[in-house]
Amino acid sequence: MNPTDYNKITGKKPEERGVRGRVKKQNVNPCAAAQLKAAAELSREAGAMSFAPPVEAVYNPLDYAWDAFAAYVERFGGGPKRVVFLGMNPGPWGMAQTGVPFGEVRAVREWLKLEVPAGRPQKEHPAYPVRGLDCPRSEVSGRRLWGLFAMRFGVAEAFFEEHFVVNYCPLLFIAGRNLTPDRLAKGEREALYTVCSRHLQAVAGALKPEWIVGIGAFAEARAREALNGTGVKIIRILHPSPASPKSNGDWAGIAAHQLIEAGVWK
Known about the structure:
Layout: H1 3-10, H2 30-47, E1 57-59, H3 61-64, H4 66-76, E2 83-87, H5 95-98, H6 105-111, H7 140-153, H8 156-160, E3 163-167, E4 172-174, E5 178-179, H9 186-207, E6 211-215, H10 217-226, E7 233-237, H11 251-262
Parallel strand pairs: 2-3, 2-6, 6-7
Antiparallel strand pairs: 1-4, 4-5
């Protein structure tokens, strides 16, 4: 469909519409608008990619849960942030359900106070159903991460005054189990990293952080490559995943100590 046909049918220019043809809200904060524009481009580019076996299904929450993600950015991402926490990619029981990075259902509902319904991926893996805010499972990583922020800052608004949380990669890969992006075939991985790094550069340009905190080694490494030469300070904290033995003790205490020792927190 050419732009003229698009305008006749929708009454909107293509650049005025969001993912899957949703109309963008007017008068969105410029900082949030820049992030949403970059996220929409990332969703389109990454969502158009193909992945060979062993990948069985690919979930793109920036597509089917766009409204929830946009609500998160519009409410909490409307200005420069001193610190940006960077995750790897959506978890099956977190962002894949809620559209929010590390979006464990209870944290999204009760601490972030976001209750925006999400859709479902076009191809759903039977072992990883998407139920949105009705998902009965809890993503441990998200529960630990937002739990640390709640413990330190009390209310979400106090945390988001200087902080924000984003993911490097927008896609969840399922190959019988959750498959992390670093385990993709080399060609697939490199193509994906190119668009993800471009998105991270756009987010950093909008939020102007002093610090990028990689949540785990993968996020730190990707941030160092994407933001090399920008002057942004980059550190890493222990990932809260239960797959890491160290995280199953006092993860919050360890992460807080790392942040304080680096000078991110006082």
